[in-house]
Amino acid sequence: MSGPLEMLVTPQEMGRIDHAAAASGIDSYALMRAAGTAVAARLLARFPHVERVAVLCGPGNNGGDGYVAARACAQAGVPVVVHSLGDPAKLEGDARHAFDDAGMQPQALADYHPQGGDVVVDALFGAGLSRAIEGEAADCIDRIGEAATPVVAIDLPSGVGGDSGAVLGTALQAVETVTFFARKPGHLLMPGRDLCGTLSVVDIGIPARYASLADSRVVENTPALWQHVFPHAQAAGHKFARGHLGVFSGPMSATGAARLSAEAGLTAGAGLVTVASSGQALAVNAAHLTAVMVKRVDTLEDVRDFASDNRMKAFVLGPGFGVGAKVRDYALALRENALVLDADGITAFAEERPALAEAFSAGDTRLVVTPHAGEFARLFPDFVPEEGRSKLDAARLAAAAINAIVVFKGSDTVIAAPDGRAAINTNAPPWLATAGAGDVLSGITGGLLSQSMPAFEAAAAAVWLHGEAARHAGPGMTADDLPQALARVQRDGLFADRRFDGSAGRTS
Fold first, then answer.
1. Which one in 117, 252, 313, 505 has a CA-CA gap of 20 to 30 Å to 454?
2. Annotated binding residue 298
3. How many structural domains are present in the chain?
4. For binding (6S)-NADPHX, which residues are annotated in this chain's numbering (predicted)?
5. Is 163 in the same domain as 273?
């Protein structure tokens, strides 16, 4: 499947696509042969001196792919053993055809014990698994893990949920995963993304038009999603044309978070940024800021006056601000404006979510909330990811509940809109998990909102740029390094060379 936006396909949708392709007259067994042969080719390319291939076949079509792969490896002159889960004589359809063509007598799965030099082909369950693995399959997976035997997985490592990326009981760690037609959410959501190893998407002959049978609103977060509305400075423009962002500061002992947000917003392109500070913290903020302005804001009336200036385009509230009625009052006073609500601002509405939802219920989506897992659980306890609900599902439910863009942060940040659009981000390096990084993300988001970028695209772009800046800064970076790294990302031409070709964050 090709195109600038590569959507993600759930296992259920993939089933419909397979069925529709077969119903149209496409030879489904030819597709299986193409799949299994592609797996064998990837294995032999990666392990050209493999001593033995152990193919573990399940009772469905994933197992059928495995029998094809086993035959292809044997034809290449590699020793092959096959172990089956269940009685292969009970296989039906294409899987039975593949078993018959392979001409191999499988041993029981319980009898597989890894040997030195083995490479395992995991053809047990694939993406359609919906319950925890147990019994002999779980025991076999554990033996493979203990032996650290390399695994090439078909579709998804067994034990990884195709919808959620969650581990269902136990799961194999693959060095490579080969999937077909399109990626599933479980390929991008953690821990599934890590368990997949290197991911390859292989074209086995299903026409791209069948993508119309899937929900095209769920994609990976790449620049192809938002580049068409990304703001660029115009030759005849001026600072107010690029937007004015307001960032609310916390008390004197907690001003740093707001300054991080403010600097990030300025770097993201806002023409002006003003830190709204209490009189108590005014001197501290003024002493540390140069290009960012400072304004005294002590009361709710001051907030309303600040927001009434039609040159103010967006606000950031919450980083270092403190939890309580004051932050709720400020947020509700900004209900007509674009607002990024983060950190303390999220926690403050834990018991008052209906008020937040009501305030931003009308009109275009203009509220962006950016919770990490703990904050998400406080604001959306009814949507917390759990068995049967993925992080993707949780974020989409939360977004619809409060008519906001929800940025559910983490190594697999999900950006969700009330209308069901969602994007999963993959380019964040592990060293981005550092104090203050979230404050920078809020500032980038606010800076893009201030330039009138639509809220969903602004949040998605901010998350991607945040990750790219961290990658550019490298290990050992701190949150203070991120705005400067973001400026370098733009100045060094990565905008044209890496972002807008949609390639960053892709797997190979």
1. 505
2. no
3. 2
4. 61-65, 126-132, 155, 257, 320, 372, 439
5. no
Do 474 and 354 share a structural domain?
Answer: yes
Residue 85's domain is classified under what CATH number? 3.40.50.10260
User: Are residue 26 and residue 112 in the same domain, yes or no?
Assistant: yes
Known binder of ligand: residue 372? Answer: yes
pTM value is 0.93
Cβ distance 457 to 423 under 8 Å? no
Interhelix angle 61-75/28-46, rounded to 10 degrees, is 50
Please check whether residues 308 and 432 belong to one and the same domain. Answer: yes
Which pLDDT tens digits describe the chain residue by residue (508 residues)? 334 467 899 999 999 999 999 999 999 999 999 999 999 999 999 999 999 999 999 999 999 999 999 999 999 999 999 999 999 999 999 999 999 999 999 999 999 999 999 999 999 998 888 899 999 999 999 999 999 999 999 999 999 999 999 999 999 999 999 999 999 999 999 999 999 999 999 999 999 999 999 988 999 999 999 999 998 766 555 565 679 999 999 999 999 999 999 999 999 999 999 999 999 999 999 999 999 999 999 999 999 999 999 899 999 999 999 999 999 999 999 999 999 999 999 999 999 999 999 999 999 999 999 999 999 999 999 999 986 689 999 999 999 999 999 999 999 999 999 999 999 999 999 999 999 999 999 999 999 999 999 999 999 999 999 999 999 999 999 999 999 999 988 777 545 444 444 443 333 3
412 marked as binding residue:
yes
Instruction: Characterise 414 by phi-psi region: left (phi > 0), alpha (psi -120 to 50), beta (else).
Output: beta
Q: Is 186 annotated as a binding residue?
A: no
